[in-house]
Amino acid sequence: MSFAERVYLACARIPKGRVSTYGEIARALGCRAYRAVGNALNKNPFSPEVPCHRVVKADGSLGGFARGARKKKESLEREGIKIKNGTIEDFEKVFFRL
DNA sequence: CTAATGACATTTG
DNA sequence: ACAAATGCCATTA
Questions:
Q1: Smallest CA–C1' separation from A57: which nucleotide?
Q2: For residue A7, what pLDDT is reported?
Q3: Confidence class of residue A19 from pLDDT cuts 50, 70 and 90?
Q4: Cα-atom radius of gyration of chain A, to the nearest Å?
Q5: SS3 state of residue A37
Q6: What confidence score (pLDDT) does residue A88 get?
Q7: Active site residues of A
Q8: Can you say whether residue A60 is alpha, beta or left, with left for phi > 0 and alpha for psi between -120 and 50 degrees?
Q9: Helices assigned H by DSSP within chain A
Q10: What's the confidence (pLDDT) of residue A87?
Q11: Domain assignment of residue A31, given as a range
Q12: Domains of chain A: total
């Protein structure tokens, strides 16, 4: 089981309509490799299977997205997450602590 | 094995 | 508040 695999599993735990951060994912895995988490999600071999779009930066901004940040924003809004000028509103509310 | 690279995070200027 | 500099950790070349 590689690090990336664990990342995907953790990601899959995030409920619809909530978001989490790269750092939080790393913390849930028992380390602080938030950079590595980003790399794992970027590869993302399980594209629609694992909801990688629910993972954002710690400051509430969306961060990057392999298929374009635009798409990511739309996906999140579709799940009921409001975004204001590239930043998530009520970030503290929708934040999902693993 | 060493070096380079990020969908990051925090601190400083 | 914003931009730049540092630190971070696993992966990959």
A1: B8
A2: 98
A3: very high
A4: 12
A5: helix
A6: 96
A7: 52
A8: left
A9: 3-12, 22-28, 34-43, 69-78, 91-94
A10: 95
A11: 3-94
A12: 1
The gap between A35 CA and C13 C1' (Å) is 18
Using a 7 A cutoff on CB, list residues near strand B: A 21-23, 33-39, 41-42, 44, 52-53, 55, 57-59, 63-66, 72
Contact between the CB of A3 and strand C at under 7 Å: yes
Contact between A33 and A3 (Cβ < 8 Å): yes
Is-contact A10 A72, C-beta < 8 A?
A: no
Give dist(CA A72, CA A6) in Å, integer: 22
Domain with residue A58: its CATH number is 1.10.10.10
A27-67 pLDDT, tens digit each: 999 999 999 999 999 999 999 999 999 999 999 999 999 98
Tokens 């664990």 found at: A6
Tokens 């993302």: give the residue. A44
Proximity of residue A32 CB to strand C below 7 A: yes
Cβ of A87 less than 7 A from strand C: no
Q: Is the pTM of this model over 0.90?
A: yes
